Amino acid sequence: MCRAGETRVAAAIGSKKARTLLAVLGLRCGQWVTVNVVADALWGDRPPRRPVAGVATLVSRLRAGFGQEVIVGAGSGYRLGEAVEVDVHHAEALIAEAERALRSSEASNGRRKAEEALELISGAGVLTDQPAGEWVERARRWHAELLRRAWHVAAEGALGTGDPERARAVAEIAIAADPLDEAAYRALMEAYVAAGEPARAVLAYQRLRAELTDELGIDPAESTRALHLAILRGSSATELQRPYGC
């Protein structure tokens, strides 16, 4: 979390309840969150006798530590102040910009923004100090989807800027997270061809096909099959290049 250039990590924020409150508000990206939603995340099915007062006390303590403008609202609902920036929302904006850049054939710009996003959201898990719950699982799914998109753009951007080794590395990370990620496999196959290793690209395709057959009982998508066929025919890396998202 950042405010006016100041960055705080979770461990420096305070109590677990305070971190939970900020996480719930942070996930809504400036939208109002009712006190009932906050209380449910804080206490679940064992709320205090006066949950509204309990939330207000936490808000007061956070304001004392971060400034009055950090949390807006009182009583029925709250939101983060406009001065607060949450890494995951910044990363989401960067990824959207990166995707637009690649669609405009701006590989270098797209790659740079995707790598910036990955610096923000890669590494530690999401809400690891929180017990399982619907809001926590939703946050984790969102984070996983942002990572997937960032890996795809970073890999495509690396291919477009003549760096097949980075493309291969990022594609493998995406595949490790989701062994059925066909877009990552296509980037991996192209990276091997660009590196002068078409045989390894064919092996990657066979690996994907086996995963899809075993897990879903389906064949790779038409675009993946077409890429495989082009590699078998000996197409060059330049000939394999395609618009982003295809």
Describe the structure.
The chain is mainly alpha-helical. The chain contains eleven helices and six strands. Strands 2-1-6 form a three-stranded antiparallel beta sheet. Strands 3-5-4 form a three-stranded antiparallel beta sheet. The two termini are 35 Å apart.
What keyword list fits this structure?
single chain; 246 residues; mainly alpha; three-stranded antiparallel sheet; 11 helices; 64% helix; elongated; disordered N terminus
Strand content: 5-15%
The biggest beta sheet reads: 3 strands, antiparallel
Helix content: 55-70%
Compute the average pLDDT. Answer: 87
- Give, in spatial order, the strands making up the sheet with the most strands: 2-1-6
Computed over alpha carbons, the radius of gyration is 22 Å
H/I helix tally: 11
N to C succession of SSEs: EEHEHHEEEHHHHHHHH
What's the helix and strand layout?
Blueprint: E1 2-3, E2 6-7, H1 16-27, E3 33-34, H2 35-43, H3 51-66, E4 71-74, E5 77-80, E6 84-85, H4 87-103, H5 107-121, H6 134-160, H7 164-177, H8 182-194, H9 198-216, H10 222-232, H11 237-240
Antiparallel strand pairs: 1-2, 1-6, 3-5, 4-5
